[in-house]
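Before a computer can learn anything about folding, someone has to put a protein's shape into writing. The outcome of that step, for a single protein, is printed below:
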Amino acid sequence: MMVFAEKLGWKIQKQDEQEVQQFCSQVGLRNQVFKVWMHNNKQALKKRQM
């Protein structure tokens, strides 16, 4: 999931919505779960880099 989030630039934009939905269905997650995970890990990644 981290590789996919990095590919998106840690942001989900309108043009990426279908790609995100496809990824979530392959992995077995709801879109909202992935969005929350991405938000949480983006913050944690910033803290680790400091």
About this structure: Helices lie at 2-8, 17-27, 31-49. The chain has a mean pLDDT of 91.
